[in-house]
Amino acid sequence: MPHPFSHDSHADVIEAVLATDARTLAGAFESRRRPAGRRGRTAREAPAGARDEATHELDLAGVLVISAAEAAASLDRFVDDPGIEPEGALVFACLLHVTGHTGAADFWWQFAAGGGSRTAAYCLCLSHRRKGRFHDAAFWRAQAAHAPEEPPPASRVDSRRRLLSETARHELLLQWHRGLTPHLPAALESVINRLTVDSDDADFGEIPQPAPGLVERLSRDGR
């Protein structure tokens, strides 16, 4: 399978990403990590370009996760039982990220990382890096380097059932490749924005909660 980060033309990038799965995503993120021996800059020393790069990469991570073949199944399991589905929390966080709920995305990435998701830990690394919090970014980068997370068994994944339509996935990747901030179509943003907010957290702000029927609404309104 082509590597989703290895192409220059947006057509090749989209083709590769739309065919990807969680194992390829994990490998892609791993290949993008800088060598552990390289000294990082402090927030004061870091150039603005480093933060922009982290923002651009985090946007791509979010798009890749919600475009993955098992995103719908993972999110469904998370809605049913958040306590045992860190991969669903990762998907939910990425949905919040591309909808502009950045604080809530950090909350759910942290939840997923606590459950063992390396990809969520790497998203937190990028999130802190784009804010210039390089000490926190280094912590989450170290967490992301721990033992590989186990992908869901193949029998639990229906690759024909996608969280987003092919059109929506194409558009997200096109936006990213053009240097824009990826965002969901208005109908899908509305689905996310109507979710119940459990609390207004001092650290993360308002935190939307997953709700029954979320996957079905996203699938239906995105067609």
From TrEMBL:
Residues 30-53, 203-223 are annotated as: Disordered. It comes from the Bacteria. This is SMI1/KNR4 family protein. It comes from Streptomyces stramineus.
